[in-house]
């Protein structure tokens, strides 16, 4: 499976795990069935799967507005390339001051193109908002950030998303996960990738233990199939929330082996779990070997 990357980056983006996630799920798309993602983030899972119908939601209105813009063709390859060319030139001339000017402008007007500019030139490519919802990530300190090849790469990513959306019955909507789950029907499939408890906390990601527990209760009452992504263990500990709230589900785990220099090492490794409603997972003995991006992965079912 050749995985493509969307134009917007966010914490917890599942790019490398898409083959693992999609290879574990057994869902037959029926005439009216929808793929539902209540925690859309970058959209990398939905865009690579490209179902016929989808309900794609997130509380972060900037993510949603950006993808709505692509859907209505207000944002396309050409518009993005011209915008980033122009803004990139200003960044090159004026440096960090220009980044902060765009950041202030974005926090006033919420322009989706400014959002893209900031997302692709901020420090470490993270997405973080202050308590009032203002984007507050500092500059990456590279005024030459928007090289011709970088602009082309981003424009191609926008074009790829436009192609994945074209002709499909997809809705992008700003919504809290509870509203979205309330719409799920019998033949739908829900993929959930909630924020990590207590990590990356910001305006759009205040995810506490109580939220995680409520999500488990509500999700398990869904009439349709579902799968939930969650970190399983790192070198220090296991995620006890899985045992506490999701132990009755089918559990598949993908272990990352990070490459350090030329060597493969478990140092800093993290295992990601996919918790699947019984009856909606591919049987473990029918799984095909998968390649997870640039990293090697091993699968071990629970
Ligand atoms: C881990 S990220 C999803 C990453 C995504 N699967 C990807 O690969 O890019 C979690 C997302 O949940 C959203 N979110 C946080 N709290 C939410 C809530 N209460 N309802 C809906 N979305 C929420 C965040 O804005 C963030 O985009």
From TrEMBL:
EC numbers for this chain: 2.1.1.72
A GO term for molecular function: site-specific DNA-methyltransferase (adenine-specific) activity
UniProt entry keywords in alphabetical sequence: Methyltransferase, S-adenosyl-L-methionine, Transferase
Catalytic activity: a 2'-deoxyadenosine in DNA + S-adenosyl-L-methionine = an N(6)-methyl-2'-deoxyadenosine in DNA + S-adenosyl-L-homocysteine + H(+)
Source organism of this protein record: Stenomitos frigidus AS-A4
GO process terms (BP): methylation
Protein family per UniProt: Belongs to the N(4)/N(6)-methyltransferase family.
Protein name stated in the entry: Site-specific DNA-methyltransferase (adenine-specific)
